[in-house]
Amino acid sequence: MPLTFDIVDVFTDRPFAGNQLAVVHGADALSTDQCQALAREFGFSESTFPGAVVDGREYATRIFTPEQEIPFAGHPTLGTAWALRSRGLLTADEATQVCGAGRIGVRFDGEQVELTAVPRDLAGPVPTDVVRSLLRALGLLVSDIAGESWVAGCGLSFVHVPVTEEALVRASASSHAFPPVAERLSGLGRVEDLLDAVNLYAVAGSSPHLDVHSRVFVPGAGVPEDPATGSAAAGLGLALVATGLLPEGGRYTIRQGLEMGRPSTLSGRVEATGGSATLCHVGGRVQPVASGEIAVPPGS
């Protein structure tokens, strides 16, 4: 019997922009290999496989890129919650997603969906020679750097590298994995969720509200460039506090996906106490694109 699915675009106010997501329903009995086959078939940066909703407010989900399962991601969290709510399965305005990174809060506010995540990794500043090797893979130079780089995340950790606006536009995506830097980065502090990923960003404005232009590259997971990355947006909040741009917390609006022709808007909010981030919130809108049925892949 085929599985039903929804395709949605996340972090956008119109279809055919933002980041694409496939949400496959009724997938409780699927094996890891079957989920991976479906994620590869859709070919989006992520596909999700939610389980049954409990009491209209809690559900477990698995998240897959075309290459691997991951513990957490932002646009899949928001898109999955929206799809479950649109089908009448999530009935509360506040819900909980259970995934590999733990329990992630989700809140509906009008047309906006927002996730709340707890900081997990923060380490830095990243040594210049490590940043240099990462930038080289993107066609950039050390002279393009515009501040300290940090490793940060709330379930998926990125190397967040501030660069000039001109350099950000000039960066080129690559399908090759970044040079191995995990050992060097682990020496900076506790890093448990490191992804082969770089978040390049340029900042304008001042505390407590920043405007950010971002580009995210995840070649090791089969995503040369991502049009909207909620997990990177959450981690960026930690980096903005650590670098002193939002020392007491605040808001930041991220523009992403412009260079890919899929413009996206992510609303970030980070809470901080004593110069340390305590909670990260990332929100955006979700647009329906398609629904249908797909065959169940052969079991392993």
UniProtKB/TrEMBL annotation:
A single MF term (Gene Ontology): isomerase activity
GO CC terms of this entry: cytoplasm
Source organism, top-level taxon: Bacteria
PANTHER family: ANTISENSE-ENHANCING SEQUENCE 1 (PTHR13774:SF32), PHENAZINE BIOSYNTHESIS PROTEIN (PTHR13774)
Protein name per UniProt: PhzF family phenazine biosynthesis protein
Organism: Nocardioides panacis
